[in-house]
Structures are given as structure tokens and as C-alpha cells.
Design brief:
There is one protein chain. The protein has a domain of 67 residues. The protein starts with 20 loop residues before the first helix and ends with a strand. The longest helix is centred in the middle third of the chain and has 34 residues. It has a 5-stranded mixed β-sheet. α1 packs antiparallel against α2. The protein is of the alpha+beta class. The radius of gyration is 21 Å and the shape is elongated. This is GreA/GreB family elongation factor. GO terms for molecular function: translation elongation factor activity. It comes from Streptacidiphilus cavernicola.
Length: 164
């Protein structure tokens, strides 16, 4: 079970950062769903010359706004996927975005976790880079111990392994 989860945008410092294969597949799935939804919304938009009552016009404006929001989100995901391709694979010498690290927590439990940008609700192995645990682990190497805040107080995690 992940110790921390949440949502965040691209790259911790705005730079192109690598993502794991799992995260890439999730972004690609989201992109495909958004494109399908965009097609459905676009198909409902009528001819601009059609006359209708104000309710019809308001509904048409709402669908146009929905289409714009979908276009913005699609562009955001496409940009993130391009950036991650430029960034290359996750590093294996220090913990970074896209890394998979095995850590030992203060209670002696161990867990393999991925440092990512967006944690899906059901993905218990993904820790976001802007969560307390994610921020604490970034930039650390095998053998190093970090402290971080939890809802129950301070905890520690020791990096045992780092993979891409």
C-alpha cells in the first residue's frame, strides 16, 4: 500500500522528466479516452446558422466550452508524452521522477514504489513527486535514509534499490 498519493502536473521543476512505462501507458489510455470523448462532443455541435431558442443556444455554447476543455487536456497530455520521450528513461543512480525504488520504512516494512506525477486511486505503488514521501526521496541514493511527514507524524524511509 502506498504511503502517499496525489495529483500533479508535468515535471517537478518544469523540465522534461522521464516517466515509467506504467505511467506512459496510463497517459496513453487517458489520451485515447479524451479523443473519443472529443469526437462525441464535436458530433453534437450543430450548424452555427441554425436558429433555436435560448436554451438550445446555451446548450450549444456549453458543448463548445466542453470541446475547448477537452482540446486543452489533449494538448497537455500530448505535450507531456513528447517531453517524457525527450527526457529518456528514468535514472537508476538516484531517485527521480519515473524511478522505481524499493524502500524500507521506519516500521521495517519494505515496498517497491514508483515516483510519478499522477497517482491513480487504485495504484497503491505510485507515489507522486510532490507528496511528502516523494519530495523526500528525490535525489537520494541507495543506502540513504530520509524523513518525511505523514498524517500520523514523522516517518523514515531507507532507499534499498533504484530501478528505471
Amino acid at each position: 500500500m502506498a504511503k502517499e498519493a496525489g495529483m500533479r502536473g508535468a515535471g517537478v521543476d518544469g523540465e522534461a522528466e522521464p516517466i515509467s512505462d506504467t505511467a506512459r501507458r496510463a497517459l496513453e489510455r487517458d489520451l485515447a479516452k479524451l479523443r473519443a470523448e472529443r469526437q462525441k462532443v464535436a458530433a453534437t455541435l450543430g450548424d452555427a446558422d441554425e436558429a433555436g431558442d435560448s436554451a438550445d443556444q446555451a446548450d450549444e455554447l456549453q458543448r463548445a466550452d466542453d470541446l475547448t476543455a477537452l482540446d486543452d487536456r489533449i494538448a497537455e497530455l500530448e505535450t507531456r508524452l513528447r517531453q517524457s520521450a525527450l527526457a529518456g528513461p528514468p535514472r537508476t543512480d538516484v531517485v527521480g521522477v519515473g524511478s522505481t525504488a524499493t524502500v524500507r520504512f521506519g516500521d521495517d516494512s519494505t515496498q517497491a514504489i514508483q515516483i510519478g506525477e499522477v497517482a491513480e486511486e487504485l495504484d497503491e505503488t505510485l507515489v507522486t513527486a510532490d507528496s511528502p514521501l516523494g519530495r523526500a526521496l528525490l535525489g537520494h541514493r541507495v543506502g540513504e535514509t530520509v524523513a518525511y511527514a505523514t498524517p500520523r507524524g514523522q516517518d523514515t524511509a531507507t532507499v534499498l534499490t533504484i530501478g528505471g
